[in-house]
Design a protein that fits this description.
The protein has 313 residues and is α/β, with parallel strands linked by helices. It contains nine helices and 15 strands.
């Protein structure tokens, strides 16, 4: 596996946990943290570096945008926190303004074949913004999308059925947010659809499917209410995406990719099963989802397109 250089922009809970997870995974020879709060980035880097004797050889440091020279992947987790009384559109405009600064500075130094990975919410719109601002090819920009949402659904199916989560095959598609869609029509366990599996084992029914879908949609809100933020699982999800790229795995993940006609949708970033390899997005698969799921996917696209129209790039 190729072990290169990764940049993590934003040393908040998500960024620092992502950098730590990447260090443990041994994917990269060099990890650089960049944050406006230099002391926080330096403190995190030193703290992690003190553990390098227990992992594969790696350097962990704090730096600035000039360190994007030679970077293979740049992960963007930085974001503006939502203020009290602020609308979603206000927050989006604040983060778009921040991303204009970040992406411009990254592209001053990053190589032409760099892969950019936005994680900041709303991730689909910020993935599209990153694509437009960077001038990179569409395959080189991919957001974390619904990779975590899909994992949440696999976990819930596993809990209900007793089957290893790695053998519960399903996808959350569309927006990473309230309009996301559970693709039950292509969900399967051991080659059986969920309906077939439920009838065969008696361990679940259609009501359970609705409950699981709603729990996935609301799980982030529940975690935030209990502990203030979500960061462990998204860090593992981002590390998994990096692993697919670094290892040229051509694995299927629901990253947020740029649509240019797939499913009749264009000029927006959404999540569907996507092949991820050394070039980033290798291929967006056009899966024959169910009729209601296709409607949900298109509704997601419309929702995001309307928001994109309201921001100035």
């Amino acid at each position: 596996m190729f072990r290169g250089k990764v940049i993590v922009i934003g040393a908040g809970a998500v960024g620092s946990t992502t950098a730590y997870t990447l260090m443990l995974g041994g994917l990269f020879q060099e990890i650089v943290l960049i944050d406006i709060n230099k002391d926080k980035a330096e403190g995190d880097a030193i703290d992690m570096a003190h553990g390098v004797s227990f992992v594969k050889p790696v350097t962990v440091s704090a730096g600035d945008y000039s360190d994007c020279k030679g970077a293979d992947i740049v992960i963007i987790t930085a974001g503006v926190p939502q203020k009290e009384g602020e609308t979603r559109l206000d927050l989006l405009k604040d983060n778009v303004a921040l991303f204009k600064t970040i992406v411009t500075n990254v592209m001053k130094y990053a190589p032409s074949d760099v892969i950019l990975m936005p994680v900041t919410n709303p991730v689909d719109i910020l993935t599209y913004v990153t694509y437009k601002l960077s001038g990179l090819k569409k395959n080189q920009v991919l957001g974390s999308g619904t990779v975590l949402d899909t994992s949440r659904l696999k976990y819930l199916i596993s809990q209900k059925t007793g089957v290893d989560a790695r053998n519960c095959h399903t996808y959350i598609i569309g927006e990473h947010g309230d309009s996301e869609v559970a693709a039950w029509s292509v969900t399967n366990i051991g080659g059986m659809t969920m309906n077939e599996f439920c009838k065969y084992t008696g361990k679940c029914d259609l009501n359970d499917l609705d409950k699981m879908y709603n729990e996935v949609k609301n799980s982030a809100y529940e975690i935030i209410k209990k502990k203030g933020a979500t960061y462990y699982a998204i860090a593992v999800a981002v590390a998994r995406i990096c692993e697919c790229i670094a290892g040229d795995e051509n694995s299927i993940l629901t990253v947020s990719g740029i649509f240019e006609g797939e499913y009749g949708i264009r000029d927006v970033a959404l999540s569907v099963p996507t092949m991820v390899g050394k070039n980033g997005v290798e291929r967006i698969f056009e899966v024959p989802f169910g009729k209601e799921e296709m409607k949900g996917l298109n509704d997601s696209a419309v929702t995001l397109s309307e928001l994109i129209k309201q921001i100035q790039l």
